[in-house]
Amino acid sequence: MITQQTTPFYSRPGIDEVVLLANENRAVKYYSMLTQEVNVKTPAFRAGTSTGFSAADMVNEGDALNDQVIQTPFTRDYPIYVTGLAFSLTNLAMNADFYNIYRNYREMQSDAIYERLEILASTMINGAAGAAVTPDGLSLANAAHPLITGTGSNIVSGNPPLGYSALASATQLMIEMLTHTKMPVNYTGELALWCAPANRDFANRLIYGPGIAGTPNRDINFQGQQITKVISSPYFGPGFGGSNTAWGLVAMGKKNPLRYVNRQSTVFAEGPDTRRMGNVYVASNSPAFVPVDWRYFCYSAGA
Prior knowledge:
single chain, alpha+beta, phage-related protein like fold, globular
């Protein structure tokens, strides 16, 4: 007598926790390193750029202070989509899986979900000078962001290739960027350097060496004290619409202007597929990646 299993191996409680635990062991989650996560319940995410206050007034003792007006001059709604994929397996296929080939499908499905997150996050970098739009309606990297009067830029002057002097210019730009009321943001906090893998080795030698890379002197690596992380994602390369030469800096922590908007974390579900006499396996989430401001981010085409 031959006994055949009629329930697919995946049909058991807790499979979603098992798959999520497996993803904790993924080598690197670049999208998580690059962004600041925010959780929402709405079908769209509204980002607004605040004017901030001007410098405080100075008056004589006993004189009244004037009210300062704070506004949100630019707002933009960003849609939040659903991403996911499904596959079906027949009971016959599962019963004949003597080499455990199909057991890996769930993990492969989970990998595909995370790959989509990486691709979506990379559009803010690869499209920084084009399709990635901030609330003021201009591309994330732009030399003409509107201020209360005039314009501001977050493009490193001359679009220099990655190097120590170029990093010095970029960190200077991060200090001198202007708020809407033309006050310097004066950001000297933690920074991450982003670049394509073609610059990964050079970027790490620039940042983590105790001295200045490529020089015979013993000058300290001052830039490496502020730039504490290198994000070198393969999704920043030409294969995904990026560039091998482009690079830039982004603030870390609450000043990070790149948002990972999470309406729904990844959900795994399964159920009977009566059409095929088997089971269907579904994974989905609801993310968006949004550049909420051009400040605290700088860009160089590197060529």
